[in-house]
Fold this sequence. Notes:
35% strand; six-stranded mixed β-sheet; 6 strands; Conserved Hypothetical Protein Mth637, Chain: A; alpha+beta
Amino acid sequence: MSWYSFGNDRSLLILKLYVQPGARQTEAVGICGEELKIKLAALPVDGKANRALTEFLAKRFNVPRKNITLKRGEQSRHKVVEVCQSSNGPEVLFSEMRAE
């Protein structure tokens, strides 16, 4: 199993994420088991961490935030997220990691 998969027509990207809220900055940090670990600067209060996650993913995948759907894990660190209509693949989440 992988931390990502594609829907039938490849216009849907499904991500399995492990999210760590309350970090110094928002960034993808690497693979943790079968999930991609993402650190979020936002705290898990009043949905702020989920909003920060969807904003981060929308920016990385160059899609509107409405194209990012949290399918599972609204109140968990383990999340399943769908990205619709992105021309970018999952490798865009690692762009900052390679630059360092």
